[in-house]
Give the backbone structure.
Amino acid sequence: MKHFSTRIVILALFVAIVSTFFIGCGSDESPHTCQFTNGECNCGKIDETYYSEGMEFLLDEEKQEYTVIGYEGTDIKLMIPATYMGLPVTKIADGAFSYDMSYGTVHIGKNVHTIGEKAFYGAQRLVEITIPEQIKNIGLEAFGGCVKVREIHFNAINCNSPYSDKKFVYELDGIWESVGKNSLTKTCTLTIGNKVKVIPMGMFYAPSDATKPFITEIIFEDNSQCESIEFVAFLNVRKLKSVDFGKNSSLKRIGETAFGNAMEIEEYVIPDSIEIIEKYALGGRVLKRIVLPEGSWRAVRYSQGVEIVSVPFVASIPEENYSFISSHGGYYFIKQI
């Protein structure tokens, strides 16, 4: 009996020691444990205090928060923590991770709300970008020159435009700055999370000569809460081939020139929730078809080549407040009556 009791004590100590290396994760209904490796466990949980070795932090003593200011590591997955030394990490400084050749993906801690200008500029191996819910500010060219990006996940709920004034948009370089003509990226999917309420002005705008990343597909998740796509949100995304607004969309407005110069898109299927399509909103040099929701819409065919579905063609002189859609050198004007 004595030996049995000793074995129980030894076993209990062993379990206690081992459990310090494991953290429970998963749902409350079916919890399980897993060991963290580089801040992440195989069930998807993140240790929000873990950060990639070689990361540099700067303390704002007044606000008692940290900014990530640089990196000299080699991690394939870059881990930016939510806290450091017991205080929140709230910002990624301008150029903090620019021109790095190591990381392929990035985890951004849950307290980070600002991504600075050129923060990840020229990250040659970055293949996937997730912009989390809490991000409120993204600087110009934050991800410029990321030539191998295949997936972009935009989940920011209340993100501000990188532009301070609408009239300067055309004079500025976008988040996706061109770094040459020979892109290594062939396809890139941009997924818009269903909690996102607005695509801010110029968020994915690119300069007129921009070639990468090649955003070829935009997908809005089902039950999207997005109500507005703002002015020039996707202007000059030239390689765009398709836009899927998802099921049960809440989209009410597509702003002026939102999809301007989308050279390769052939069809738009506009959700039933739409109320306003502003001038120049739907670009497309090879545009063939626009599917509008049933209702009191009218369209004016001003040139040949595009089929307007769900509304009649109405012969009329174009009016200033019609939407303006460029195709084959001609125009369509669409208005909800």
Remarks:
- The first helix runs from residue 2 to 19.
- Confidence is low (pLDDT under 50) at residues 15-24, 26-36, 178-184.
